[in-house]
Amino acid sequence: NSTVTKTMVVTPPVQSVDLTVYGDDFGLYPQNITVNRGNRVKLTFRVSDTNVYQGSLVFRDNVGGKYFDTGKVSPGTFMTVIFTANQTFTYKSYGFSGGAAKATGTVNVV
Fold first, then answer.
1. What is the pTM of this model?
2. Going along 25-100, which residue ranges are E strands?
3. 43 near 73, Cβ under 8 Å?
4. pLDDT (tens digit, 9 = 90+) per residue, 77-110?
5. Alpha-carbon gap, residue 27 to 45, rounded angstroms
């Protein structure tokens, strides 16, 4: 007699997370966000229509654009990026015309 063993691998569904970060020349609100490893993250950057003095902001991760680089986001508007959370990383907001870093945020992956 021979025995046949079958193994089934069940992969849990990917969880989607929708988050919003508000930004101006003085900060990111909230500054830090936490997501689970493997989450599909839909992150919306909303730029304040006040306290933005170089015409717009740019939001860019500090891992070479692996997760996002929004390009110009004008005051009163927003840009949404989607990525899969695989590692903790920081990102910065920059003034569009001068390129000066304005604030730093963190995406914590647990």
1. 0.85
2. 27-29, 32-35, 40-47, 57-61, 78-84, 89-95
3. no
4. 999 999 999 999 999 999 987 678 999 999 999 9
5. 12
